[in-house]
Specification:
By secondary structure, the protein is an alpha/beta fold. It has nine helices and seven strands.
Length: 247
């Protein structure tokens, strides 16, 4: 497995992170995009059965384990971090789940062309050379195969300021999505569907505890979806759900 200097730095960062409990202090903000993960999992629930699936940048396998229960034909998880993969293998064995894990480079994987029906990832593309990874996903997807990814946006100036003030909380070379990155995706996939999340739900995150049970969260999430219908206001969002199909 050949690695660039940036690949090695990313591997070292995530090996160190997952050598402990893998938690980041930003975790308490994630409840503000609970609806994003709901939509992501709902899509996978509807589209995983009897499919050959790749978890692209699987980490320790927390999502892979959920998808493995949706009766895919086969599910494989890859990650550059051997610490993460070893933890994922250990958990899958304890849970008696049929998952194949391997250490691999997402930018240049060991898979043959046209291998997968579905490839998904959460917060992985912004750690990679985007052009290389988009081409690689396209290469290993089957015709009419689908990619679905959750990625952070780098367009809200307040969120970007927080990132600058907390550099040790993230890898040195990560690059949250900006508008030119969507142009790269469209060059490869033509039509992509994007849905944006996390403005008022983030601004008022201290005012609710459990988003699944909170009426306030549900109201804020609906307001977010209304304002994100206006293209100009999408820069306020924290995260995006991206779906593309190989034609």
């Amino acid at each position: 497995m050949s690695l660039t200097e940036i690949n090695i730095k990313e591997k070292d960062f995530h090996n160190k992170l997952h050598s402990h409990d893998g938690r980041r202090r930003e975790g308490f903000f994630y409840k503000s995009i609970f609806n994003l993960y709901e939509d992501f999992h709902l899509y996978l629930q509807k589209n995983s059965k009897n499919k050959k699936i790749l978890d692209y940048g699987c980490g320790t396998g927390s999502i892979t384990e959920k998808i493995a229960k949706l009766k895919p034909d086969q599910i494989i998880g890859i990650d550059i971090s051997e610490v993460s993969i070893n933890k994922a293998l250990e958990k899958a064995k304890k849970l008696n789940l049929k998952i194949e894990y391997k250490v691999d480079n997402c930018e240049k994987s060991s898979f043959q062309e046209n291998t997968f029906d579905l490839i998904y990832g959460t917060g992985i593309l912004h750690h990679l050379n985007l052009e290389l990874s988009i081409k690689e996903i396209h290469r290993i997807l089957k015709k009419n195969g689908t990619m679905i990814f959750i990625e952070p946006l780098g367009t809200n100036p307040i969120i970007n300021l927080y990132r600058k003030l907390t550099p040790k909380s993230r890898s040195e070379d990560e690059h949250p999505f900006v508008w030119k990155d969507f142009n790269l995706l469209r060059k490869t996939y033509g039509q992509i569907d994007c849905k944006y999340y996390g403005f008022f739900t983030l601004v008022f995150f201290l005012f609710y505890k459990d988003p699944e049970k909170s009426s306030l969260f549900k109201i804020l999430a609906k307001i977010d979806q209304l304002i994100f219908k206006i293209k100009f206001l999408r820069f306020l969002a924290w995260s995006v759900l991206i779906i593309g199909k190989k034609t």
